[in-house]
Amino acid sequence: MSALSLDLAKQHMKVDGTAEDDLISLYIDAAETWAANYIGKPLADFDPIPADVKHAVLKLVAFYYEVRSIATYGLSVDMAPQGVTAILDSYRERWFGDGE
Question: InterPro entries given for it (predicted)?
């Protein structure tokens, strides 16, 4: 189950037309994977997916879309826009020895 739809991502980024649908879909998948890895569990484990988690994924999709030339060269792989990690921190799985 995807955290958000292609249509919602396009609305968020104010993208019209279908020329970049495949690219945006790729960014949605990448953002959802990044978020799941960050919190330590699949987003599909949430039922329903919380609105703030969707918001974090939307921010990450928009970031990937806006800085795609940087991402192409691998410079932004570990970067996330301000606020994404802050939103996801409350959902993060903590393990013994994780500093908490």
Answer: Phage_gp6-like_head-tail, Phage_HK97_gp6-like
